[in-house]
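Handout, section 4.2: multi-component inputs.
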Amino acid sequence: MERKLRSILSIIIFIGIWEIIGRLPNVPQYLFPPFSKVALKLFIVRDLLLKNILITFLRVAAGFVIGAMSGIVLGLLAGINKRADQFITPIVSLIYPIPSIGWIPVLMIWFGISNSVPIIAVFICSFSPIFLNTVRGVEDVDENIIYAARIMGTSGIQLITKIILPLALPNVFTGLKLESGMSLRTGVVAEMLAIPSGLGYLLMKGESLIDTQLIFAVLITMGIISLFIDYTIRRIEKRLLVWKG
Amino acid sequence: MKKIVSIIVLLLLFFYAGCGNRIEKLNFAVELNDHAASAYVAKDRGDYAKYGIEVHSFEQYATGMALAAALSRGDINVGYICIVPAIIAYSRGVPIKIVALTHQYGYELVSKQEIKDVKELNGKKIACPGEGSSANFVMRLVEEKYNIKFNVLRAKPIGEISALTNGAVNAVFIPEHYASILTDRGFKLLLRSQDIFPNMPGSCIVVKDNIIQNKRNVVKNLIRLNTEETKFINKNQEEAAKIVAKYLDTKPGIIENSMKNLCYTDKLNEEKIQFIIDKLAEWGYIKKFNVKDIVWKGN
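Output:
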């Protein structure tokens, strides 16, 4: 309870400092608007924001879910099967260090101005780290547990679904939590560069119209969405890893 | 608690100190196109010094919106800028005044050759600079006049050229001289700003309020110089094109063709500027204000 109060207090102090700085006589409000004006802007453009939040959220969710599912499935395969590991992991390790936003220009040429660009950019962003974390999670599973399960007659599929996957989940969730925020950032950057809709587009609109209130309103919204995604993943993790205590 | 208070005080001091009045040196900025021909000609012929204008820096910006942002930050205090970003910057509270016009028109709709009529572009993908640009203003007027709606990709002029060249879009609303670069490559000039908005103010010279207050004579000289350079451009278009081409790193022939699409004039048409202000307000980009608030006539 005390921790929560401190968190709320720190946010109130942060907003207070923001408001004071925004109202200093030598600080132009068109460059640094006070929080109260940004809050008012949030209210004024709520319909526009909601529409674009939904668009961005759907794009990011689509790319993230496809990337995460592919990463987990291929990660399990590579973790279990040495040949698959030797084939897939070097390719993923090669692609992983490339910033996902670096792919956007070529995606724009391949797919034009379409939803595919942010979705695929988010897919690329989320796939590699989740794959590598899943492989690490599978490799970390105690071999004695697998041996014991086999002795007790556990089939191949059961071994994966009942033993290996649950034990690899902590690592998988580490990857998911790390990449959820990054996926939102990648999706928004893709929208800024390539797509005339979504939160990224609103940021560019704000820049074009020197509308810093709109820019801050979108940034606050992005922060809230990031917190929501992180909170959701943590809730799912808590439920699935209930055995971990 | 003491630590928190100290941090807050330091932060406030930092912001307060960082945003103080700057020394009033004349920092010029122009757009990277032939709209700013009078600035390029004045610089090339060394005329600023002849008129007692000491240019401390002379920067080029890719778009009027980027230049407007630089004005708002305070990086520059004299800008040759498209009229729409100037109006938007003023409406946000940036302390500037328009002191002269540099030209009329200068925004075109360039399409693939197979497009025969503007109406064919209804619902089609086209490219246009951001919503704070004059090209966007012309695009919105076209949408209204023809009762059509474009599917718009936002891009800077260089990006628009790539998008049209690689077939990602069917047409672009683009400022000169980029439009002439495209027509030189075989694309079709489908519509000019003069076709949709007669006497459309193109670009202007804006000056920060503190410069007008403290260097009134210098600003008056700047207005006089602009008048002289505009006369020179209209009398010696080939020579002016060569000068501008040098600064834009483009073939003089392209610049000469481009300059024919513009009408170089220094005369401020308040009625037309008010029309732009009213339209921008109607579309929700700015709050309506009177043109007299933004125009400075040297009084």
